[in-house]
Structures are given as C-alpha cells and as structure tokens.
Amino acid sequence: MASKAIFSTLRRSLTKPHGGAVSRRHHLSTTSAATASEPYPGDEHAIVMKGVRISGRPLYLDMQSTTPLDPRVFDAMNASSIYDYGNPHSRTHLYGWEAENAVEVARIQVAKLIGASPKEIVFLSGATEANNTVVKGVMHFYKDKKRHVITTQTEHKCVLDSCRHLQQEGRPRVRLEPLMNGGGQERGLRSGTLATQQVVGFGVACELAMKEMEYDEKWIKRLQERLLNGVREKLDGVVVNGSLESRYAGNLNLSFAYVEGESLLMGLKEVAVSSGSACTSASLEPSYVLRALGVDEDMAHTSIRFGIGRFTTEEEIDKAVELTVKQVEKLREMSPLYEMVKEGIDIKNIQWSQH
Ligand SMILES: Cc1ncc(COP(=O)(O)O)c(C=O)c1O
Question: pLDDT-based confidence at 154, cuts 50/70/90?
C-alpha cells in the first residue's frame, strides 16, 4: 500500500531531530510538478481545465480553504474503513461496539488537544453546523437572563448569519432545541449516525497536532518570512493585511498596490491561492473581513491569501515568490496608474473627471 510506504518513511524521518522532519515534506510537496523541467514543464504536463491552460499541477498554497490529508491520518481512516464498519450506535453486537470504541478514542484525542473533557465533545458535520449550534444554542439557553449577542465583523458568515437570525427572532421564549432531530445520538445534541472514519481521522489529526504543533508553527513561520521577504525584496507597494505579529503565520494575506486583484489571480494559475473565503469566492466583492480590518476598497481588491501548511516546502515558497513577482511586474507594466506613481504623481490627490 503506497500510504504505508509513505507512513513508514515518515515515521523514520520524524525520529530524526533535524533534516529528516524537513524531508517528510517532500512527499507531499507540489513543487516537483511546477518545476519538473525549467523554466516550466513542457506540454506533456500541461493541464487545460475550465478554459485555462496551466503548465503543470499548481503549487498548493490555499490551506485556509482545505489542507492535504496527512498520510498518517489517511492510514488510520483507511484501517478504520476496513475494520470499524459497524454502526457506532448499534448496541447489540461486536461490530457496533468496535466502531463505538473507535469514536470514543477519537473523542478523547480531540478533548486532550483542547484541554476539554471528552463529555464536552460533540461531533457534528462541520464548522457551519457547529457555529449555528453553539451561537443559537447558547443564546436560547440563556434566553431569560442574557439577551445580548456581541460579535465581530470579522467572523465567518455562518456566525454572523446565526446572530442575524437571533436578531430577527426578537427572542421570544424558545425551547433549547438541537438543530437536528432524530435518533438522539451525541447525547441528544446531534441526531444522525456518526461518520466513524471521519471521526477517527479527526482524532488522529488532533493527536498529531498535539505532538507536532510546536514544530509545525516554527516551520510555517519560517516559510511565511521567506515568502514575505522574497516578495518585498523584488516589489514595492506590498502591504500585509492585518497584524504581522498577532496572526497565524500560515495565513499571509498581501495586497499589491496598483494591480487589479482578479487579473493577478487569473495570471497566477501556477499557484493555487485565493482572494478570501472559498464560500464567497464566486463574488467579485472584496473580502468583508479585510474591509472590517480597515483595509480600503482599492487595496482589498488587490489582495491574495497565501496559505502555508505542514507539508509546504521552501522550494514551493521560492517558486510562489518568483511567479507572483513576475505576474505583479507584468501587470504593473501595463498600469497607467503605476506609471504615474513612478513619475512622482500623488494619485490620491488627483481630481478625476467623467466624460
Ligand atoms: C472560519 C470558517 N468558519 C466556518 C466555515 C464553514 O465550514 P464548513 O464548510 O465546514 O461548514 C469555514 C469554511 O471554510 C471557515 O473558514
């Protein structure tokens, strides 16, 4: 099994204090695709999809939309699919008990990571359901005592819309109700059969995070600095959106002055990045989170979110810098605004007239 081979290599490399841990990243690196032959892979690697021609599989730097699966998590899920196929809620036979056991192990793994009791962990389908359940559930629970919800504009839409929903309710007397009704699983808080393998995978991912988070954080911070310094060495007008100190290093959101964001994204097809949340990426509106952070409309329109992860390599970052710089320079060469700035004209004070 390929994943088994990867896993044993990973295990071996993880036992080494230096270098080895770095080498594990090469297994999942996407650089090789984009650098298979210089300067870009030939036609044999080209991909045409949705009318866009890409010279090879792009570098993956969109970790805030989703991350590649760690092969160790995959192996655990794979084994669980084969052995724990019973329904974890079946109480009458061994298959059910085994699946239930796998779920309970995962519950402990998740709880340990966040310092909670396993009893406090309720498995749901994802963040939208979790945020809806918590925001609405807590407010309904405290309906008689506390009648205000305070949120921030930078929250995800599923939090904001849950709060808006409460606002519309005007808070009449509402019974505390789970969002899903049915078999009463998860102690009545979330009906529906648990997806055992997803739960097992989540548990193993939490256990790995606990062991490796400190190392991952240092690695990711190093790559973030490499990316930012690399881009800034070659380009002016690069602004970091949000605080550079109080931020998760794996999310580097940059604006490139005098460049139209959509054109930049379209021209950067060899790097898989995005301008913001995948949930709102169909809209051409700039990110409402950036606007709430005080980024002005123009700069919010030129933003790109680089997402760095556990398996990202230095080679991928260097390639991303090279491709980004090239594309920004190309777009600026075509920009009359940039030309004016270069000539020393203060474009903020220009009086534009309509014809
Ligand atoms: C911060 C945040 N909250 C909630 C969600 C929604 O998650 P899900 O699709 O799992 O419901 C996302 C999705 O990317 C997110 O980024």
Answer: confident
Torsion, Cα 223 256 271 226, to 10 degrees, reads -10
Residues 56-77 have pLDDT tens digits of 889 999 999 999 999 999 999 9
What pLDDT does residue 325 have? 98
Angle between helix 157-169 and 127-141 (nearest 10): 30
Residue having the nearest C-alpha atom to atom 8 of ligand 1: 127
Work out the average pLDDT over 1-26.
40
Identify the structural domains of the chain with CATH numbers, from first to last. Answer: 1-68+213-342 (3.90.1150.10), 124-193 (no CATH)
Q: Give the CA count within 13 Å in the CB-facing half-sphere of 253.
A: 22
**Which one of 129, 162, 277 would you pick to mutate in the ligand 1 pocket, going by the greatest count of ligand atoms within 8 A of its CB?**
277
Q: Is 279 among the catalytic positions?
A: yes
Given the residues 158, 163, 206, 279, select the one marked as catalytic.
279
Distance 35 CA to ligand 1 centre (A): 32
Q: Are 189 and 178 in contact (CB under 8 A)?
A: yes
Q: Residue 172: which pLDDT band, with cuts at 50, 70 and 90?
A: low
> Looking at ligand 1, which residue's alpha carbon is closest to its atom 5?
127
**CA-wise closest residue to 29 among 63, 59, 56:** 59
Which phi and psi angles does 253 have, rounded to 5°?
A: -105, 115
| Eight-class DSSP state of 45 | G
Rounded to whole angstroms, how far apart are CA atoms 24 and 6? 9
**132 touches ligand 1 (CB under 6 Å):** no
> Using a 6 Å cutoff on CB, does residue 134 contact ligand 1?
no
